[in-house]
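Per reviewer request, we include the raw input and output of the structure prediction for the construct analysed in the revised manuscript.
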Amino acid sequence: MRTGGQLIVEALEANRVERIYCVPGESYLAVLDALHDSRIKTIVCRQEGGAAMMADCHGKLTGKPGVCFVTRGPGSTNASAGIHIAMQDSTPLILFIGQIARGIRDREAFQEVDYRRFFGGIAKWVTEIDDPARIPELVTRAFAVATSGRPGPVVIALPEDMLTEEAEAPAALPYVPVETDPSAAHMGELENLLVNSRRPVAILGGSRWSGEAKAAIEKAAEAWALPVGCSFRRQMLFDHLHPCYAGDVGIGINPKLANYIKQSDLVLLVGGRLGEMPSSDYTLLKSPYPDQKLVHVHPDTNELGRVYRPTLAINASPDAFARAFAELKPAAPPIWEDEATSLHGAYLDWSTPPETGPGPVQMGPIMSYLESVLPEDVIFTNGAGNYATWVHRFHRFRRFGTQAAPTSGSMGYGTPAAVAAKELFPDKLVVAFAGDGCFLMNGQEFATAVQYELPIIVIVVNNGIYGTIRMHQEREYPGRITATDLRNPDFAVLARAYGGHGETVEKTADFASAFERARASGKPSIIEVRLDPEAITPTRTLSDIRERR
């Protein structure tokens, strides 16, 4: 006989969970007590949204479900931002929520929420466990659901009295991963489409990749001289210095790459959904009927034909498809080889930072410096905002597992993600980029980095505005500024108040020494870069946007 709390922890251990991210609550005290005697590491966070984003980062970088525990009511609703990210990003995640006692439902009890209704539209599966004897069954099922097909978040509510009730239950067994392999017939059809193509392109995205899959797809691309782009915030899926790499298929795409995709005769879409952002509002590939022939490879049949009608639909995980694709060899050199070379050259030009800009701080030279000193396995995290363009366009990703950023465009992600990444990979350098508005949405997780002695480096690009919104505002309603100005703290002083290291950069030349001091400090660090708000994009100022309306 074990309590529900003990059975939850046993099921987590059976499913090889090594760490959880949480904000504690009285609604799941029995689980916290059971964790005291387990081998599972508990990472205590400062806000449930940050905890859920840490779990999402865990899922992105490992492919295994990140596990998060929060309390009922406001704890769960705070966590919903992370659940939405995991759903749109196809990230495996399991959120456990302490719930009111079973006998007082439907009275609007203290912090009562119907979680099936609340999370029903933004989670892959939502359930509530009423019988502790079913915990092994339902928790293992949660891991299977979160990782199979198109991965996503699962939400499990745990009534408080159920967690203290004793029950006899079988020992939990781990979930069995479900792989989907491409058939030989489908690979033969793909080969025929490639052989008869004149202007093909591959676009990589989604989840369920591995380092081995990345290497295999690079091998296949090289054999076929196939131009390859990476979908929005999935850039770690292909080596940017590989001769076949054509660039980021995201917000602010290189016009040369966009034009090539529009005029291509065959698009090989592997793993991704090519939603609104990477498709440039469904103009690169028209929905529902693309102008190009489309081979869509996805591990979930529900995604095949949902937005685009494919010429060939292959129900396979990216991992399995990449292995099979690497075995295909062209009988003769592809006729589009020069196109791949040209697109890669265009990417190198596009990803070379500008040297000038308005104000005393230029982000271009800062990015050039970072590219010269950062190791290939540095992990970059970021949230959302115009500042992220500097990372996505000018950092050349080389290795798998080096990027964690929300394709959902959620702000506040970079700092908690950096905490999770550094805790997972303590030997790797972890750099978070954040805007001033983005940082202050979950910047309190910097305290978590200090508590666990995780020396992340957070670069806060402070321009005193909600930059992306101001950019749109100046374009649509020039000169009519409302609700986008910010008055910020001194971020370097804030870092020191938390117990970390703080630096302020007010001139471009000061950045290198500030970065080196932060790196040498051995502490979690914030480097505040005070950027002129005119430097809203790498190529245009706010004044340009206002005047060209």
